[in-house]
């Protein structure tokens, strides 16, 4: 009797998961993510930002010193969400993956980035500074 009960529970769970997947066309919704990009170049340097995913282009935004740009999106279980950005100042374009689900999902529901001249830096809640800077531009 115990085995039959486990089989029914497993079958019910699989059917529930299948219906969720079918409802969302292969994607089970998760929470919204927010990305904030701040011009941290200093010295009055103007920053042009252009971000996109595989399916969505966000256009180009121009940020003065210390200005911020925000965008949001929803992540899904069966997809690997990536947002690529290009940052242009002084006639040179630099590229960076501003959001990578595999890299950021457990750290970044609200991802705050400061774009600095040598590399982008993520906000550290513990130190209250933009000092998580392990990433370089491409």
From TrEMBL:
Q: Which GO terms describe its biological process?
A: rejection of self pollen
Per the record's keyword annotation, is Glycoprotein included, yes or no? no
Locations listed in the record: Secreted
Q: Spell out the GO cellular component terms annotated for this protein, sorted alphabetically and separated by semicolons.
A: extracellular region
What keywords tag this UniProt record?
Secreted, Self-incompatibility, Signal
Q: Which residues form the signal peptide?
A: 1-26
Q: Where is this protein primarily located?
A: secreted
Does the record carry Signal as a key word? Answer: yes
Q: Which family does it belong to?
A: Belongs to the plant self-incompatibility (S1) protein family.
Write the protein's name.
Answer: S-protein homolog
Q: Which organism is it from?
A: Lupinus luteus (European yellow lupine)
């Amino acid at each position: 009797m115990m085995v039959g009960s486990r089989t029914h529970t497993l079958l019910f769970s699989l059917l529930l998961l299948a219906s969720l997947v079918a409802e969302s066309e292969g994607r089970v919704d998760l929470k919204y993510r927010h990305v904030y990009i701040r011009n941290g170049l200093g010295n009055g340097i103007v920053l042009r930002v252009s971000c996109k995913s595989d399916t969505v282009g966000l256009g180009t935004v121009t940020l003065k010193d210390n200005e911020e740009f925000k965008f949001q999106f929803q992540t899904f279980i069966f997809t690997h969400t990536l947002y690529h950005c290009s940052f242009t100042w002084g006639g040179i374009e630099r590229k960076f993956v501003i959001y990578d689900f595999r890299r950021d999902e457990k750290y970044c529901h609200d991802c705050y980035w400061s774009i600095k001249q040598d590399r982008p830096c993520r906000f550290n809640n513990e130190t209250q500074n933009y000092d998580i800077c392990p990433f370089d531009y491409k």
